[in-house]
Design brief:
This protein has about 1300 residues and is α+β, with helices and mostly antiparallel strands. Helices cover about 30% and strands about 30% of the residues. The strands form eleven sheets. Strands 22, 24, 26, 30, 35, 37, 39, 40 and 41 form a nine-stranded antiparallel β-sheet that branches. Strands 12, 14, 15, 17, 19, 20 and 21 form a seven-stranded mixed β-sheet that branches. Strand 8, helix 7 and strand 9 form a beta-alpha-beta unit. It is elongated and about 170 Å long.
Length: about 1300
Amino acid sequence: MAQCQKSAQAFVRDAFNPIVGVICSEEANVICQKNHLSFVELLLPFSRITSPIHIRDASNISVNLQDFSVQFRDVNNLPPQQTLGVKLLTEAVGVCFPTQKEQHITSGGYEIRIAASTPWYEEYRECFLNIITPSDHEFLRHYAACVFVVSSTHSDPMSQFAQLTITQHQQQQQTPAKLPKWFAADLCRYYVLLHDCTEGEDPKAEAVYQSMKSKYGVHSCHLLRINSVLPNTEETPSNETLPDPWSNFIRPRSSMPSKEHQEMKTNGILDSKQVNSDTVDHPLGPSTTEKSYSGVPRRPRTRSVSERGCWLSSHDHDRLKTFVQEFVVRAVIPWAERLIKAYNELYQSKKRAGSLIKSLFNRGKQTESKPVSGGYLPESPEMQLRRLGDLCFMFQLYEQAYSVYHTLKKDFEGDKTWLYCAGAQEMAGLSIFMQGAAAQRNYPTHYLDGAIDVYQTCRSQSFMTRSVLLSTEVLKVKGLWLQAASQFLKLTGEEFDLRSAVLLEQAAYCYLNMSPPQIRKFAFYMVLAGHRYSKSSQRKHSLRCYTVSSQVYEGRDWTLAENHIGVSVSRLSSQLSLSLQALSHASKLLTESSEQPHQQCVFLKEYLQLYQKVKADEGEKWRSEMAVPQMVDNEVMVTTEQFEMPTNSTVYSDDVRWTQLEEACVLKSQGSLPLVFIKSTPSYNKYMTNTHCPRAVLGETQFVRVMVYNPLGVVLQLTQVGISWRFQPSGEENFSFDSKNNPDVVEQTNIPVIDLLPLSRQWILFRLVPKALGILNLLSINYHVAYKDVSSELLSSPVQGELLLTVRGPRLNSSVKDKTSVSYADDQRLYINIQSELPKLQVIFQSLPDNMLCGEIVRVPVKLTNVGSVALRRLHVTCNEPQMVTFSDYTDVQDYSPFSRKVIELDTRVATLSPADSLDVELWIRAEDTPMSKPLNFLFYYELADDSTGTKIRHRCSRYSFVITTTSGLTTQCNTHIRAVKDATHLGSYLSSILVHNCSKQSHEAATEFAVTDILCKSSGWRVTSLCSESPPNVRVNQSEVALLNVYLTQLHKDKTQCLSRVHLNSEQVAMGDEIVDSFLSVPFVQSEQPPAGEGDQSDPCVAVVGVVWKRFRMDVNGITTQSAGLHCLPILTMSEEVETRAGRSPSFNNQFTVLEIPRRPTYTELAAPRQHADCRVEYQLLYESHFMVDLSKHRVCVFPVTLVLKSYSNVDVEVCIQHQNVDGLMWSGKTCSKVRISPYQETSLHMAVTILRYGVYDLNSLAVTTLDNTFVRHPASVPHLLIVEKG
């Protein structure tokens, strides 16, 4: 805790030392003013007695006086009125500031630094005790002695003494009594003859002094010689080497002392332009003609610190010290001993007589006793005893003083004169404290607490303040910090802001000194003290308190408290001309917080005003980034190889996928990879190492993207947004351009307006076109900022600001030093190396889709243009998903590299592509068979046509990425198995059943219908043929419908050449060539030849690929129909009875048995079930003749027998329900619903019949077989049971 220079005992002792009045003649004042001091000020450094002195008490016992001093005061200077007293206190506090010495306190996770001392509090105490007005209920502040000072140069000094004595006597005897007040009628009077050694006559002075001794007595007069220094010239005195003993007693009031001023600058509270604006001019100030409180004018004087006491020699200092000591020893102490003995006799007689003495002197009471306003006559016994107590206390006779005060306390309580009682009670407690270890009683804390309460009740603010100042010092010594803080807080009302501020701060220090320290209470009361300091115009102290409290609240998520402190510190710093400090604290307010938007507008307005002021004061060389908007950490992206991006594309950063694509193109173009392969880097961002400078091309647009963040709840409008840079030409190391002086070196266009929404992040894209070779260094973003309200109306004029571009590389973690510290690698992305001109390929994708159906094929025209100034050659393109793309006219040159990337050479028709030449190609994209979102990454590779340019860049790449989302529309499912074929043309053929399901989502806005146009087969040993000789009807599948298509796969003679066969199913045709379809059907063959990841053996080869070509019709609510086409590929690995192929999300085929699940109870007999049926309960199988040739012209209907075989694998009885469902052209005969109970592990058969009405292929899976449990659970068959009926 901050400590005071004086101890508690010294402070109490100095607060009640004897007061001596001084009356000077005019000539004496003139002699003193040679030293720029009055006579009272002349004695201030020497008023403390350093040699041992003694006093005898009433028992004639000698008592040593420790550190005894007296106060000399000019009688004519009366105590100030309340308004002037406040000004004096304000000035006393305003000129004191903490020194450089600080104290560090760590407790409870808090670490704070406070001042080691509080000199402003000590100055406040001293000033307050000096200006307090004397009261009639005590005599501690009354003049105990009077010193008359006359100059030896006066024509008749003795008459002057007589005149001054008469004047003092008349003032003392006036009725009613006025200020100043005197201790007793028998006053200690002392006469001083002031002799100027340089101007006065020594014989005359000696003669007058002898007359004084004969008239006033030897012990009541003194000859004081001063001004012994002779001047060298008329203006300059000769002595300048003596120390200034008045520096600690007289402080300049017009400005801050130079030493303290320097300390304030060192601590950051003041800057070089700071002036003390808190000093208050008042009648005691030296800047105007001084006047005494009695209204007598004085001549003006200038108090120069360097000339103060300049006419005094060291002997004069000794004479002043001797004068004070002789005055105290020879006059004051004997006078005090005499009065103590006289008053003690009265006190002893009172003790002997008891109440009788009180009744005898009761006539001295002025009025009847009253609780508050009752009083006594000055010569009443109570007042005489009070004089005794005060006299004993002033002369350090504390034991006797306590005895007297304690007696008076009881008497005043009985008379209910509470103000007198409080004074006696206060001094009784202090008397016990001042006895120290010799005290026979414990310190009565309640004495001063009660006195403070009585003073408060009596509305005696001055004495209540004095009592608190004294009591708290005692409590601090006793270690009662909580009680001391409570007493300080009693005087923190709204009456006096300065007093409340000083005492609130002291209460905060009390909480800090508790064990353990209460840090948060300390910070809270420091904030309150700062607020009250601000109200009392003590801005520097207010700033200090807020700054100390910010150490506790900062970074603790106490947003409102932090904002209050930040606003206060910012405003106070601005008022004290600390603009940089104010701007720093104002910027901390512009963060994401719980403040309302209107309050954030106030913060932002003040910040912008401060920013403008600092910029105007500091000049153009001052650079500081604005607090809003903020740059997101390290989010700066520099792109050098991008010209134009499609709407749904993004350019990826350094990625393994792009590196593999580029390596595949280099291998295809050059035949092998170079020994040192340097990949091209199109974009530099925070995820890369960025150890090399980005390489850009002269005349090409460079893109710089910066992400900014608006932390406020208001809209920020940025206008005239540009980027500042510095350019160093090639070969010029000591010469550079900047964006202000040479804007033509780099072409850029400022962004007109950007609106940043509240609490949002946004990328800002800058386009730079370099016009010269060299290094382009990006520095900052320049803009004008304003803010809007909810109605989008500007609330402020735009202010020019700057946002510095700062980047850092990845954190270093390779060495021990890096691991134990936080260090980052260098990042070169803001230094762009501009090289000579190169070719530039512009790729424009037209009609690029965002969403596609599964298997949909879309044609995308692509235009390739050389927008550079140099020709290019060896144009290649590759994609990360080669199975999804193909190019028209280039299907025959497609190749697969060892990197599993399809590389297509696009310049087979032209050798080179000259500047401004174009090449048009068609891109076909086929969506995946499953719903997903997949990026398509295209890399266009090309080389320079002329290798003699001297550039280090040998090839360039253009990267484009599209995200295509596929949704379910049509799913297909194929099952190939051997059937008995009676037609000779189809002997040895396999029946392929293709299930087509329209799974598009139902929508009220559009209806979707699919038409299956063709069934294709690509194979070297198989071809697809129609099942019937008749042309099939148009196959259309509406929403939620399923179509079953059956074709034959007929084996051909073995041939290595793959051929494409087709079966037309619809009159609708799709607008795509056979080469495109053939290209997509070839993908499964190639994929089956690629080895699986991590395996060396080859997978099974693909026997054939069955393709389903479809066309979609979609009609919206307006009747507008849109069409699209697609292809589903069904690779067939083997030709067998049980084979599965699928596309989309359709379920795969199982074996011919369909499993029915029912609840089971585990028993031992269940283990007898076959191993292959361990997880099933019931299975069924249809037995029937699958191929019939009949003539329906002779028979209207045809009935075919079907046998249903049910087998149970359960250990309990199972009840099975069979339901018949008729379809178009097929009807079941018999019951529509049958129930059968099957015993455990038994098999049963049901004989049924099916009726056919016309030729065709029918699926008998319309038969529904379910188990009968609590709920009906339907188990559809996944294997089609086909019945073929042909005309025979």
